[in-house]
Amino acid sequence: MGVIVMKVELSWLDRTYVWPVMKGMSITFQHFIKQLFTRTAKRYTIQYPDMKKEMPAGYRGLHELKRFEDGAIKCVACFMCEEACPARCISIQAEEFGDLNITQGFEEKRPAQFKIDMLRCIYCGMCEEACPKDAIWLRNDYEVAAYDRLSMQFGKWDLMNTYAEADGKDRISQDPTPSVPRRTIAM
Amino acid sequence: MDMLASLLHTTPAIAWMALKVVIVFGGVMSLAAVWTWVERRGSAMIQDRIGPNRARLFGRWPILGLAQIAADGIKMFFKEDLVTTDANRRLFWLAPILAFVPALMGFAVIPFGKSFVSGGQTYHLALLDPGNGMGMLYPLAIGGMAVYGVLVAAWSSNNKWSILGGMRASAAMVSYEIGLSLAVISIFMTTGGYDPAEIIASQSHLPWKWNVVPQLPGFIVFFTCMFAETNRLPFDFAEGESEIVAGFNTEFGSMKFSLLALAEYSHLMTASALIATLYFGGWQVPFVKDPPVLLSVASFVLKLVFFAWVFVWIRWTLPRFRYDQLMHLGWKVMLPLSMANLVFHAWRMSQGH
Predict the structure, then answer these.
(1) In this complex, do A27 and B317 lie within 8 Å of one another by their Cβ atoms?
(2) Which one of A17, A58, A76, B144 has the largest count of C-beta atoms within 10 Å of its C-beta?
């Protein structure tokens, strides 16, 4: 199998080098002038700490656990995300809760603990796809960093508040309904 | 102005000389330092980037990133000064100086303004007065010495890649020096002298009488050879990231590296001063018959800065040549072209008389 290499025949003018060099210089000069009269903030470069990139829709950044309007968590602790997670970074402990209300449907189970180890998470979005209640989703925050390993263990309240400021919602740290003690089955 | 003139008359010649030395060498050195910034900002703009703009003076005034020069200087100054164990220590210390001094010395003979008469005495705005018998041969000779800086730096590092870089630089310089000299000789010939003052005077104030117009091939040869002389980008064979690490300055750090880098920019300044003097009328102001002294100085500085900018501009436009292309261009194109230029002008002069 042969590859046909197309040879470019240079014209006499091109073979003098001088003319192509001047053409190239005019191109770079146009770029120079264009950049010179463009304000720094308007150039292509995103100056990171001052400017941030608008992430496209569907970007998989930091997770959020969704909540209802009264602050109750949407998650029903079905463990689907924990099963789906290829990095095994989610760990859930379920609990029951009483005082059923209409906004939440007739659920009676929710996570007492919902931990994501952000050091292990690979931001693949499988948890979002697995969730039957659309309770977890990955949003556009990509600045997930901390000074120590322990603060990269995100708990239930961390995850529910990750986008509280961005969305203008209150930070919450308490479920609206109390949990009930585990029912003991009378024998 | 009168006070200035009387001050000038009372100063002894040695003080006038010292003042000129401070102005010329200080000016060239600070311009070279500024050019490190110009290179970075200019290249950034050519490539649609921003370049260094975050360093601030005293952490407050951004001034277009000019504080980067000071920041770099301070950083270089406080870095550990390493010398490799197998290096030739004495030469290793000497090399940056050998590179830096010839780069500056070439400037000494170039007039940076019109000579003026004050109080019955002529003052020349050049470190060496005209008629010193060296003329334009002096910067060429000094320019030839500049290769020692690179070569000694390469040799003393005791490093294979350094030596390869140094050898390539010296080979390039030797092959381009011939074309360069022939181009300059044809200027000497048409001028009838090799003193820079004579060369500038013969070019007069009319831009079409500047040497660049009748000697365009000579100018192209000279300009190209200056790139090889200063080891700048289309011909920067002393360095080569992918082939020979950083070339001749691989082993250099801290202030030694800084000096080597500054030497390159000083060389660039001297080269653009030579181009301005030989081909663009030196301090001559276009269309002004007898310019004021300050205007002539401004004209010279403007030309100098423009050509220094062209050096930067070309560096960020052209890709570098391959080594055989460099040799091909040097021996088979530049040398015949400058020879043809020389012969053509000799023939024209013989017809004219």
Answers:
(1) yes
(2) A76
